[in-house]
Amino acid sequence: MSPRYGLILLLLLLSGCTEFNGAKAYLLPPSALGMEELAPRVFVNKEMSLAQREDFRQVVAVARTNITNFYGSITSQPDILACSTEECFAGIGGGKPRGKDLGKSKVLISPRGLTVPILTHEWSHAELRTRMDAKFDGIFGMNSIPTWFDEGLAVVVSEEPRHSEKVWERIVAQKMDTPRLDDLVTLKGWNKAAGKYGDVDCALGVPGKMYVVYTLAGHEVRTWHRKAGREGLLKLIDKVKSGESFENSYAATSK
Prior knowledge:
Blueprint: H1 3-13, H2 17-27, E1 35-39, E2 42-45, H3 50-71, E3 79-82, H4 86-91, E4 99-102, E5 106-109, H5 116-131, H6 147-158, H7 165-173, H8 187-196, H9 199-203, H10 212-241, H11 246-252
Parallel strand pairs: 2-3, 3-5
Antiparallel strand pairs: 1-2, 4-5
């Protein structure tokens, strides 16, 4: 094992059971995790029915088109691991979300997330990390890109109805508490806010909960993207990769 992968494994081993299973999913080929190949780079658990497999094959095709259309091309090639049971999802480190990216190399999809918006959302993370040449594949986030932008961009690309502008209008109308963007810069801060404001409960299907944090990030990036467009997004990526601060790049591309 290379020192790079050894460091990733050590850090994840120290983080807990879910992260340990995620480390296995990151480091091992899907076949070693009991997954079956459905299509090139697409894997499903053995228990997934034939009807579910065919449906998910179409989900993958549409999600790939969504990423290509939004970014103008597609550069990422993540392995997609989809589960039809919660046991499968927990076993590969999925945990509570409907979907999860393991950097740019793998995307994990729960039985609650076998949809075009959720796969598109997670694939957007892989695409941005690939374009940013993210350190450690971006499995721990990207120091040069705030988590709220990464997540907000994925919300915009995916057009998930539960993260939509209409949901934001409801949040504002109900005067719900929302976090500050400054609290959502790091992956740790994002995860803390997702628990505090109810996004985690919402992902688990708890009645009456809304995706406050995801919707806030989506609203912010959606507003920026209306001005910046694809050209502005690609310019921002190039600027940050070349060493310019995200803050300056974000401001320059929003004019």
